[in-house]
Amino acid sequence: MDKATVLEDAANYIQELKNRVKELEGSSGTMRNYMQDSAITGKRSRLSNSADDGSCSYEANFEESSSSCNPEIEVRTSECSLLVEIYSPKNGISLVKVLSEMQKVGLSVISCSTLPFADTTLLVTIIAQKNDDFVMTSPDLVKNLQLVV
């Protein structure tokens, strides 16, 4: 092989790689746009408890935190999926009751994990998929889970 052939092959290969990079950047941009859309359409709900009168209220604005003895429940929805996060005092939650309630209202639990935080708090993360019979709003789900916990 002479030098001209090697240089020509190298130039062709570099051109192929450039075209492949452009193709991948295009598909990456499409995926990035999809991810941003799903994040924008997601909804968050929280129920905070008032320690004074024992009443519960749904709040769209999350600046106030719930009482330290009651778990804080957060629900995020995206089309057919749900993310439920429960921040609870350690040993202050019955996970079996929560998962059972979610199945009763028409959710299929895909994943559930618990993580102890410090010595006092437990973080429960549940990923679920909506079944055809699920018709609740996020605030209603939060209220139902709060009653179970």
Question: What features would you describe in this structure?
Answer:
The protein has about 150 residues and is an alpha+beta fold. The chain contains 3 helices and 6 strands. It has helices spanning about 5-40, 95-105, 140-149; strands at about 45-50, 55-60, 70-80, 80-90, 105-115, 120-130. It has a 6-stranded antiparallel sheet, sandwiched between helices. A hairpin with a 3-residue loop joins strand 5 and strand 6. The longest helix is centred in the N-terminal third of the chain and has 39 residues, at about 5-40. Residues about 35-45 and about 50-70 have low confidence and may be disordered.
Write the layout of secondary structure elements.
Layout: H1 3-41, E1 43-49, E2 56-59, E3 72-78, E4 81-89, H2 95-104, E5 107-117, E6 121-130, H3 138-148
Antiparallel strand pairs: 1-2, 1-3, 3-4, 4-6, 5-6
Helix pairs in contact: 2-3
